[in-house]
């Protein structure tokens, strides 16, 4: 059914499909109920070292398995969760589930943290508690922090990030270059990795200026002692260009799409691919 297929693929349309008639507080109640009743699901997308194609980390990406509207993507509900504060509950669930499932991973697990989550004074305590409860060593967890969440840089933010580092957790700046592009964030905060937003890596194999800009950002990251990950690598020529410019790692549909836990395990068990 072509119409159905199109509706399912049109990510932006889904939110309207799922609750146009409800106001914010009703949608918030629905979201909180979904978290409590186990309707949230994690999919996992590996990240690869460009030097040898080995999996270096696996990122947890949340979905809402809605009984009537199917699998809702984060863009359909993360902003709402952030606005209403339900992100605290959702973030706790995601972190606990990802840390527990990652006990069997051959590499680190990466978990996304929104601006609102990062602003919570008890974030370090929550992460420490969840690591303790699940038994995952802090060194096996990376937190991906949205670039915008890191501004303005102040002492509270620095202390919080230092607290996370003290647990052995590594920090990554997600979607770098999307809007704020403050290179001083990379210099002044204890982050070890920068993930270049897909808009910066899109044309590296077809466009000279796009290539040179990405290469300059890779060099800037390296100059600051960071490793650089390219997001949204969709084509083989793009991956080759990123490898040639010295980008450390890449993630994207062209390498491996987000997978259910079952499909991830199949992929990890396949020696020809993993
Ligand atoms: P992100 O952390 O930058 O995650 C990457 C997004 O890009 C994912 O979308 C992924 O499916 C998509 N992607 C991967 N490879 C490609 C590619 O080759 N091309 C393109 N065009 N896209 C690709 P997804 O899963 O819809 O997540 C969207 C965003 O939602 C994430 O962006 C992250 O910011 C947020 N998010 C996801 N899960 C969580 C979560 O548990 N907590 C929080 N706070 N945010 C989350
Ligand atoms: Mg991410
Ligand atoms: Mg990203
Ligand atoms: Mg993104």
Oligomer: single chain
Q: How many DSSP helices?
A: 13
Tell me, what's the shape? globular
Task: Trace the largest sheet across and list its strands.
Answer: 1-2-4-5-6-7-8-9
Number of strands: 9
Query: Cα distance, first to last residue?
Result: 34 Å
Major sheet details = 8 strands, mixed, barrel
Structural class: alpha/beta
Summarize the helix and strand pattern as letters. Answer: HHHEEEHHEHHEHEHEHHEHEH
**Helical amount among residues, as a percent range?**
40-55%
Overall mean pLDDT = 90
What Rg is obtained from the alpha carbons, in whole angstroms? Answer: 19 Å
Low-confidence stretches: 1-17
Hetero groups: ligand C2E, magnesium ion
Strand content: 15-25%
Can you put this structure into words, describing what you see?
- By secondary structure, the chain is α/β, with parallel strands linked by helices.
- It is 45% helix and 20% strand.
- The protein has 13 helices and nine strands.
- The chain has helices spanning 2-9, 11-18, 24-36, 78-84, 87-101, 115-118, 123-134, 155-166, 183-188, 198-201, 208-223, 236-244, 261-269, and strands at residues 40-49, 55-66, 70-72, 108-113, 141-146, 170-176, 193-196, 227-230, 249-250.
- An eight-stranded mixed β-barrel has the order 1-2-4-5-6-7-8-9, surrounded by four helices.
- A hairpin with a 5-residue loop joins β1 and β2 (55-66).
- α5 packs parallel to α7 (123-134) and α7 (123-134) packs parallel to α8.
- It is globular.
- Mean pLDDT is 90; it is low at 1-17.
- One magnesium ion binds next to β6.
